[in-house]
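Session log. Operator J.P. requested a structure for one protein chain; no other inputs attached. Running the standard single-chain path with token output.
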Amino acid sequence: MSPIKYNLYHPEWKTIIRPAILERANNCCEICGVKNYVTGYRYKDGTFIVSEGIQQDIDYLLDDNKIVKIILTIAHLDHNINNNDYSNLKALCQRCHLRYDIEHHKETKRTKKYINQPELF
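Structure written below.
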């Protein structure tokens, strides 16, 4: 995943807009409800379990799972980074944000692939 290019965002993104959306969401993902900055792991069904001790973590890791730290992101629901109307913004965990954007990512990948194809003739 490429780093976020904050210079493309509204000048008040980091100081006003992002904090306001996180506050509105009570610092939780607006889809699955997981809290910002918690550490734990997800079951295959998406259930998030907060890490509660080293033995529990070791048992989970031994089953080829990984422990993650949740960092909430702000999704532009219409995928337009210039549309910062609060009704177009939603606080999402990484998993929910990627799932929300999956079709957009597929289309963007197809478009870039098509544009970058060399001419055949």
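Operator note: Helices lie at 13-24, 54-62, 94-115.
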